[in-house]
## 1
Amino acid sequence: MAEPLLTIDRLVKRFGGLTATDHLSLEVMPGEVHAVIGPNGAGKTTLIAQIAGELRADAGEIRFAGEDITRLPAPARSHRGLARSFQVTSLFADMTVEDNVALAVQAHDGHSFRFLADARRDARLRDPARAVLARVGLAERGQVRAAALSHGEQRQLEIALALATRPRLLLLDEPMAGMGAEESARMIERLRGIKSQVTIVLVEHDMDAVFALADRITVLVYGRAIATGRPDEIRRNAQVREAYLGDEQAAS
């Protein structure tokens, strides 16, 4: 049986009197899409930030490919094969789509952003950038300024920036955020194409996307995992239904 690519063991993160991650344990297997879902305030984004190294855990352990990375900074985790996207897109808006991705390739290879002029000429950067853009459906948009992209295309570009680092594990934090139904459907198809090439941890409120993409799902409530299983198991889980029903009633 394959060893987990990512292991979270009794992870804890507190903000003052609030426990955002409460002795959380989960495993992500190689090649799977593992969705993390839960009501607002469940601790999903906090978990992603801890995995990526942007937040330091107060207790517990994170292992990636068998290595304890709990205390490693974010750049060191990136070079080991972790990459993430964010809820709010962060791009170089005045640069072209292709330039954005070429810089991501360049930065991952350890070069400075001051060599942008070289990046625009260097086939060792341009060719990988164009290949990544093709993977996310932006091959024809390479010379367009990032600011001119639609919201959905900007989300695709952000995923391209993460893929440009050649990750083994891709952390996606709400890739459907702010999208309409048509853009969400296109993003689901793009992620279906990517999922066969990289392991993914997916945080997402769009349940259609979650059940279309996930191999397994972990449900968080108040920083704790109340269930982990295949999508059909999660659909049938009475505790999960109760947790979401209570959340919906509170919001109404």
## 2
Amino acid sequence: MKTFNKLAAVVLLSGSACLATAQDDITFHTKEVAKNLYVIDGTGGFAGGRMALSIGEDGVVLIDDGLAAHLDKINSAIKSVSEKPVDFLINTHLHSDHIGNNASFGADHVHIVSHANLRDRLKKQGIDKDTPAPADALPIITFSEDIRFHLNGSEIHVFHLPKAHTDGDAVIHFRDLDVIHTGDILFSGMFPFIDLKNGGSVEGYIAGQKALYDLAGKESIIVPGHGEIGDREALKASFKMLSDANKRIAKLKKEGMSEDEVVAAKPLEKYESWSWAFITTEKMTRTIYKDLK
């Protein structure tokens, strides 16, 4: 999934779903990664963040709900594996490529779950803009540290990692299935978007990835918000890269170099292969520089 294009950059940066003509060719498909647990991915363009779906006798649990422009296609993908309505929707974080359809699911009386900070930000600023979200889009169940669901034969542990991608991130651990959905605390094989404006931080992001690596076992399936599904080694590769990048840029900043001077010095040139349309090497450098205390 490193085939992001310019559309991906525009959507992630602005939250816009007004690019329908560029998205007509996007199709969604489901893949079972563990018993009764599916991931939902789109192909043919930027389809938003990766969703997941737990189905069983106890109901349907959806993780994230994608971009608003894709609602009908996402619903069709869900129905391809279950005719039951969605009971619970777990939001991993604030951005529209992950929770752009909250209002539609909320209007259908789906129980939306999130970290408390995410609900607070939705009430104040909405999704990726400065307009409060409608009531239907707001989570009705929130937690500060964690919450557990016992559904479909699995214990679903939803927990918070502070000041990582944002200040309202939720990670979902299907403990019985040994699957971890990281939300955007992992862009597998790519520079991550660390949203400083919404409470994210470089150190928190690295700490969060290390915590997930310690939680995961050798056989764990890691489902990132973006990038290839894999194992815990993807987490390790990411936090090692970020830790080294942070040290390189901190050294130059300590020497008195300005942000532009650090960018010109190209301290992350060795990580050019991690660059993609939205988070280039320059943008990653500037994010780290800005976040250094």
